[in-house]
Amino acid sequence: MRFFFTRHGESYANTARVISNRDDAYGLTPLGVQQAETLADRFVTENIVRLYSSPLLRAQETSRILAEKLGVPVIIEDALRENDCGALEGRGDETAWADFIEIFQAWMQGKNRDIKIGGGESFDDITHRFTPFINNLVHETHGQNGSLLLVSHGGVLYTMLPLLFENISHEYAVARIISNTSIIIAD
Q: Does position 85 have pLDDT exceeding 90, yes or no?
């Protein structure tokens, strides 16, 4: 079974630079819709048997476009949700971003993984919801044909995929950009 991880299309939270990971009211921009449509075209030749989506609006809108083109239902999965930034949610000021970046960088360096961003979720909290879900999917689909498509968020993909893949470190992940609708393939 092949796993395709992707980040949602561009959202209004992205363009406004607002931290919006819990009470997400920001949908896709027109560019984000176009990105999702292009992404759907990319997957037409793949045998996508299941499509999982984060519950956040930007991911669900991306997933609906994919599902329509690919003819598969969307399965909403909380494990794919972006990290909850607690008191930083809804903010876009320099102080909020500096606080977020400081903790995120520490996590990626293997430090302070129990610290919660703004009182929201810690690296460890995200790990406890994300990795069991993926490990269960791997176990459940072992030996089956087809591919799974998982629509998530940059922060979750940066922090969690190095825990799952033997050939990706957190240093490697940080050195790469996961732009909107980037695709990460896992066999």
A: yes
